[in-house]
């Protein structure tokens, strides 16, 4: 519709110019100065109007493109003035400006989000122009690690810490490398990686640096705190009754020695007390042995073993435990010749531990069963699944079942699943647990090729 209006206006103006030319030509043939003057005057007026009609639209577009050139999208064009085609043009300009402003606002918001996220990570990040050295962006962790104020050019680092400058900005680290950086009076072990990227034919370098000394120290400190807390709790549980019994026995012996007539020494009580101290001491020794067991496994001796042979060995080991227990235990291998590269002794220990847990979970249940399945995944990895229909694990404790010495069993040591996880890690494998109370539990052992 707007195009038709513009075309009609252009046609009318062209027609009027032709009329003026015809009128001038007619005046010339009639040698009538009056007609020639009127035709010339009208022709000049119509020609000016025609020129103004055409150039006005080009001026508006030229003005808009000039604003685009300088990225000025703040102008608002009045949409209710001028001819319908001019109004349509203004509406188009306003729509373009509005769209670009919305895009810029979204990009600005995304940039701010990214900045906030990068400020929160414990990794130093800096990006700079490789030609001029001008810093594009850096986070506070990078500045804190180098102990620098905010700087605009990497030459600032070169003047104050040339060795750090050479390692960070002159040495290329396509892979993650560990190195020592001197920060003040001490050397800090860090991980460095960097990459080069181009933006609008300008080359930039992005460097990431992480203080692994601080991370390792923090993780080591947390691990020691957890270990000492667990060990203190277990040791105190054994020492407290030993101390109490020893104090009671010492008091009884002193009273019998000081006043033998009034206080007779009860030998039976002493024997009971000594027996209790012995049992508690044995428990403490067992705790120390289980901790040593958890700590001593450091390597594996892998050999190729068929899943059927592994399962046959497990069945013979578990069978005595299932006597007088109405629990159905089944083994299934999806591929007849499926083999696994493992340390047979250690993986047997893992499977036995998990199956014994499944047996405990299915006791006193109706139609209890445990299924052990070996199969290949889509990624050609070997997966062993131990599935039971037992009581399940409460959701609030399922995340803690791999914590050393954590147990919900009265006779448990809390080492079983921790040991299983360590063995799987030594095999570069994974162990995962899915459980639902009242439905059952599935333990997955994943072995990578």
Primary descriptors:
alpha+beta, 449 residues, five-stranded mixed sheet, 11 helices, 19% strand, transferase, Sig_transdc_His_kin-like_C, single chain, 55% helix, membrane, five-stranded antiparallel sheet, 4 domains, elongated, Beta-Lactamase
Structure in words:
The protein is an alpha+beta fold and 449 residues long. It folds into 4 domains: 2-100, no CATH class; 116-215, PAS domain (Beta-Lactamase, 2-Layer Sandwich); 231-296; 303-447, Histidine kinase-like ATPase, C-terminal domain (Heat Shock Protein 90). Helix content is 55%, strand content 19%. It contains 11 helices and 12 strands. The strands form 3 sheets. A 5-stranded antiparallel β-sheet has the order 2-1-5-4-3. A 5-stranded mixed β-sheet has the order 7-9-10-12-11. Strands 6-8 form a two-stranded antiparallel ribbon. Helix 9 crosses helix 10 (344-362). The chain is elongated. The two termini are 69 Å apart. It holds the Pfam family HATPase_c. This is histidine kinase. Keywords: ATP-binding, Cell membrane, Kinase, Membrane, Nucleotide-binding, Phosphoprotein, Transferase, Transmembrane, Transmembrane helix, Two-component regulatory system. It is a multi-pass membrane protein.
């Amino acid at each position: 519709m707007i195009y038709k209006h513009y075309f009609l206006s252009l046609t009318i103006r062209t027609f009027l110019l032709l009329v003026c030319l015809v009128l001038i030509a007619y005046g010339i043939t009639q040698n009538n100065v009056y007609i020639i003057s009127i035709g010339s005057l009208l022709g000049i007026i119509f020609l000016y109007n025609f020129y103004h009609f055409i150039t006005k639209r080009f001026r508006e577009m030229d003005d808009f493109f000039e604003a685009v050139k300088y990225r000025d999208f703040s102008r608002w064009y009045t949409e209710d003035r001028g001819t319908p085609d001019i109004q349509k043009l203004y509406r188009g300009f306003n729509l373009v400006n509005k769209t670009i402003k919305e895009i810029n606002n979204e990009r600005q918001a995304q940039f701010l989000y990214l900045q906030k996220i990068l400020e929160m990570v414990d990794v130093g990040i800096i990006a700079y122009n490789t030609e001029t050295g001008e810093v594009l962006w850096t986070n506070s962790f990078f500045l804190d690690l180098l102990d620098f104020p905010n700087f605009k050019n990497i030459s600032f680092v070169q003047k104050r810490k040339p060795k750090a400058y050479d390692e960070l900005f002159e040495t290329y680290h396509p892979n993650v490398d560990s190195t020592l950086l001197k920060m003040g009076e001490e050397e800090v072990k860090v991980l460095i990686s960097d990459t080069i990227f181009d933006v609008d034919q300008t080359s930039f370098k992005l460097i990431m640096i992480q203080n692994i000394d601080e991370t390792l120290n923090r993780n080591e400190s947390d691990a020691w705190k957890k270990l000492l807390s667990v060990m203190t709790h277990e040791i105190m549980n054994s020492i407290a009754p030993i101390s109490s019994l020893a104090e009671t026995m010492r008091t009884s012996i002193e009273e019998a020695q000081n006043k033998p007539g009034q206080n007779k020494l009860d030998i039976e009580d002493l024997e009971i007390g000594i027996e209790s101290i012995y049992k508690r001491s044995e428990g403490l020794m067992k705790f120390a042995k289980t901790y040593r067991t958890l700590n001593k496994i450091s390597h594996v001796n892998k050999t190729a073993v068929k899943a059927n042979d592994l399962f046959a060995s497990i069945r013979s080991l578990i069978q005595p435990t299932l006597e007088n227990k109405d629990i159905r235990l089944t083994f299934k291998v999806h591929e007849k010749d499926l083999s696994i590269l493992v340390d047979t002794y250690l993986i047997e220990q893992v499977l036995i531990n998990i199956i014994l847990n499944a047996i405990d979970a299915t006791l006193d249940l109706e139609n209890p069963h445990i299924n052990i399945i070996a199969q290949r995944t889509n990624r050609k990895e070997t997966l062993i699944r131990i599935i039971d229909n037992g009581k399940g694990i409460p959701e609030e404790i399922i995340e803690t079942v791999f914590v050393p010495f954590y147990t919900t069993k009265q006779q448990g040591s809390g080492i079983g699943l921790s040991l299983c996880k360590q063995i799987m890690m030594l095999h570069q494998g994974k162990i995962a647990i899915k459980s639902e109370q009242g439905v059952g539990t599935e333990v997955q052992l994943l072995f990578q090729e």
